[in-house]
Amino acid sequence: MTNSLSAIALAQQLADELSVWIQCESPSNFPEGIHRMAELAAKQARDSGLTVNLTRIGKNNELPLLVVTNRATGDARPGILVLAHLDTVHPVGTLKDNPCRIEDDKLYGPGSYDMKGGAMLALKALGELSKPGATKLPIDFVMVPDEEVGSHASRPYIEDFAKRSIYTLVAEPARPNGGKCVTARKGTGMVHLCVKGRPSHAGLQHEKGRSAIREMAHQILKLEAMTDYDRGITVSVGTISGGTVTNTVPAHCEVMVDFRIPDMPAGEEVLARMQALSPVGPDVSLEIDVELNRPPMVKTPESTRLVEKLKGCASQAGFQLEDAPMTGGGSDANFTAALGIPSVDGLGAEGDGAHTLNEYVFVSALPRRLQFWRNILATLE
């Protein structure tokens, strides 16, 4: 009974600590909130005796990059890179209609599952291992401000730390329905396609116009037809805008397109097909900008061996760790895996509802996930 009560008390304590993080709203487009979140995490790290380096990055130095380590002075050995992100997808004010609360063992709130839960647990575990020598390898914990929008400012720093590491562990949320980890993610890319036509009066001189929207309809069908579920390729036109008023043949239309690829050969094929798009109608032009933002995270023998080590850490924490199938969402693990660094993702909190108003983590699972991180950081060599 005592152990049970102790576990319940610890779960409530962790939920209370996580609630403070959740109530600090930090959407990607709100640097002020991300800075507050970085300061909150930095204070927790300093209070635990960890070394903290909080700097500014981005085109205008508007974003915080938080690096926390337990390295002893002068210890330059390759170690373990832990990655997390400070930003969420939820706009400021989400808490008003979706307050942080506990219902039926679920702690709800924006960013609770993706990924403040995992970030907080990993940082707390590292804080308990702050003294040099408490871990067999030095730990560098990098918390970035822009993962949800592509990590454009953070990527050089992530890759620099990864090149000096033996392993990368990412505190993104565990997969729903079992808390599985992730060793394979699709690569992610974006396309900005703009069609330029010729305006005319839709009633008096319709025949002189060249509709950009009509042309875009053809291009959208071409793009969406590149989806191949059997090969794991998806192309999705996410937003579209065009035209001016209803009585004018539209001279402009543009779309933003998301695409996902399972490996680089598929990616190169899709990129080539997109860049080869050509007009269907006369007197119209296309402008296309294609970017493969995150390379695929491909499962390797090295990452498989790392998972086997982590399974022992999970077993000692009271649960069985499994490897999830390839997931369509990208993360910063895509960057580190592409460099050949053994990388395992999805090591964060258990829950569900990422990027929705029903996002939550399981309160009762918080203690075992904290112990999992303790075991990993203390024993991995």
UniProtKB/TrEMBL annotation:
One of its GO terms (molecular function) is metal ion binding. The active site is at residues 87, 147. Keywords: Hydrolase, Metal-binding, Zinc. Its cofactor is Zn(2+). InterPro entries: ArgE/DapE_CS, Bact_exopeptidase_dim_dom, Pept_M20_glutamate_carboxypep, Peptidase_M20, Peptidase_M20_dimer, Peptidase_M20A. Gene3D superfamilies: 3.30.70.360, Zn peptidases. CDD domains: M20_CPDG2 (cd03885). Pfam families: M20_dimer (PF07687), Peptidase_M20 (PF01546). The keyword Transit peptide does not apply. Residues 183-277 form the Peptidase M20 dimerisation domain. SUPFAM superfamilies: Bacterial exopeptidase dimerisation domain, Zn-dependent exopeptidases. This is M20 family metallopeptidase. It comes from Sheuella amnicola. The lineage of its organism: Bacteria, Pseudomonadati, Pseudomonadota, Betaproteobacteria, Burkholderiales.
